[in-house]
Amino acid sequence: EREWEAAAKETAMRKTRFPKSKNGLWMGLLIGGCLGGLKLLHNYWSRHRIDPRKRLQRAEHILRHGHHLANEGDYASALRIGEALLAQRFSGGFELVARVYQETGRPAYAHEVLQNGIRQAPRVWTLWDQMIGYCCEEGEYEAAWETLGQAELTGFPYPRRHRELRLMILAGQNQEEAVRTLLEEPDVEPDERAVLLFHWAQLTQKPEYAAEALEAGYPELDDILSWLVYIRGEQSEEARLWTAPGYKVRADSLEQAQEFWSQIWPGQDCPEFTQGEESPGPLGVLPERGFED
User: Fold this and answer.
1) Topology of 50-157 in CATH?
2) Is residue 291 a contact partner of residue 221, using CB atoms and an 8 Å limit?
3) For the residues of 241-272, what is the DSSP string, one character each?
4) pLDDT of 184-239, one tens digit each?
5) 3-state helix, strand, coil in the chain (%, to 5)
6) Side by side, which strands form the sheet with 247-251?
7) N or C: where does the chain have the smaller number of CB atoms within 10 Å of the terminal CB?
8) What is the tens place of the pLDDT at every residue in 30-79?
9) d(CA 120, CA 134)
10) Domains of the chain: which residue ranges?
């Protein structure tokens, strides 16, 4: 109020601008009030405005916390966080709320949330990606193709992820020939082809595709071997470490260790395994550097 009064008084007293009349006085008070109000507004905004980058970083941090809660099974808290993010008009809220609905057995609600998000934020590609993934989870492959087509029309800018989504749909439809055609497209680089092959193995639970990924140059052997252990289930507490030239594997028996080898390199002679000390780690496979050659 003091700033407002001072600005009004200063403007009203300027003799060179306003004559000594009632009209001049009222005009001075009016303009001075406007100027004073603008100054107050500017000062308030300078003190209280939030840097857009900081606001985004804060929202992303809250979103990560919401996903962590969902990972821990606390879906009620995750849902509250997602709804709070939506109240702030942050698109990540759609992602989190849809995830909660999908993982708690309400796919129709998840689908509706994502559709609403796509309508409001059509260039947030995570929402398109999530929608396609959920369609595949529900076996709605035609809906997945339709959603992917809509994303293309919107300008989906990530060709590698686009191929991964196509692979996901084709694998779900058991279209092996179409997947092979996708893998041989001229734009597919060798490293991407290896990644797609392993992704195909994971989607179909077929170890032979993982073997192809290794032959194509997939760099993370421990990923593939650990995945093989995963799809075959947990070993017993008596599982021990078996060692062959080039790698180590945790298995219940010599036969199981040899079986893992055969799944990765079918048709090749199995090396001689020796039993090492009891494996201390929870992972099924412990690769050695020498095997990377």
Assistant:
1) 1.25.40
2) yes
3) EEEETTEEEEESSHHHHHHHHHHHSTTSPPPP
4) 999 999 999 999 999 999 899 888 898 899 889 888 777 777 777 666 655 555 56
5) 65, 5, 30
6) 274-275, 240-244, 247-251, 285-287
7) C
8) 555 555 555 655 565 555 566 778 888 888 999 999 999 998 899 999 99
9) 19
10) 2-48, 50-157, 158-219, 236-292
Would the CA dihedral through 127, 133, 137, 139 be positive or negative? positive
What's phi and psi for 248, nearest 5 deg? -125, 150
Quick one: tokens of 222?
Answer: 């421990």
* Stronger pLDDT, 254 or 98, i.e. the higher one: 98
Tally of residues, the chain: 293
Cα angle for residues 253, 255, 259 (degrees, 5° grid): 120
pTM over 0.70? The answer is no
DSSP for residue 228: H
Q: Extract the tokens encoding 257.
A: 């260790």
DSSP state of 275: E
Containing H/E element for 274? strand 274-275
